């Protein structure tokens, strides 16, 4: 190992919020002193901070960074050559006519020491140059055969994981030679609250229900405007996400702009249905009278783009339930979409006054339930459940024929004594409601129905998650060890 290789790994810049795990993974990859060129793939939805992260790692490790744009191949090669000349301090930039020449020159940067070579927005380059993944694959084969000392650390970034998989499929699959595959996710609910500087858990849930954990929504898209406190939330909504003069107002439309016209229209209808509480393909299709095959296609497209999550029902694994992954899309289709004309005419305050109840029931309540599920798997302390939680999803329990369907908001499964999939808890989540003993009685009934159907409920903990607090009888039941109670303070600050 050379002296330069033995230097300490570069520290994460102060201006890079959180992302400790991602930074450690990238630094470990680009600073790996072992011989042999390596490849890393970085993916994630747009506006998650991939570019900021990669620019920071390139600067910290003295690497080469190129931001790709959709353009003709000749134009891209010309721009890439200019950036390459600036990086190498060449008197004149090279004149590349083919991607083969450019890729060989970029990888040669790693001939002397580990060097990050980062190509961002890579999918935009593949459109005009569909052979580019194969060009890179062949270049790596040559390096591994004749220049095994080369330590180029090539990182290709951009797009959702499904898009990156499609780009790199086939006989020359880059996935086969990649030693790093990093997904840059939105901040989770706790990280998002810290990022926005929000201390009130109640306010944090409301803001998360609008903008989720996408970092870019905190800066330019709202002109760095954050709610001053719980009293400011309504006014903040009116001056940002419901304000046509603020970029965030248009962002939900931008998220769908890549679809063709027919799919885009059907996508909006599907999202409206999901925002209204429909979750299965059949329910969504029935909501607006579409063919199930057409709806299934659109749901698959939205899922591939990272805009929907598909999860099995907690008690009927063959039944898939969909939820909107990007909270801004849920807000748009439940609150803003039905009132677009009035909003664009400047009647924002009246619209929000009429839509406030819809926001609480159709946007904040489902988001609160998802926060509860995330807490159960990520933050619940040891011993909270009688086992190690692995999944927390929604589910529906069917009783005797003709009886009302029983919905479970937080069904936790995990490992108990080495048995995977054991039911650890069934829970109800209520955002704007004080929960009391009748909620526990409902959970007991659900557990009884599940037991009758053959589910092992012996270790299942009844749980109530509330944004409005708990009544005295339910608190008394908690004291007797009969129920788990989780309020917003525990969600954001406890285990």
TrEMBL record:
SUPFAM superfamilies named in the record: P-loop containing nucleoside triphosphate hydrolases, Winged helix' DNA-binding domain
Secretion signal span: none
InterPro entries for this protein: P-loop_NTPase, WH_DNA-bd_sf
PANTHER family in UniProt: ATPASE
Name this protein carries in UniProt: ArsR family transcriptional regulator
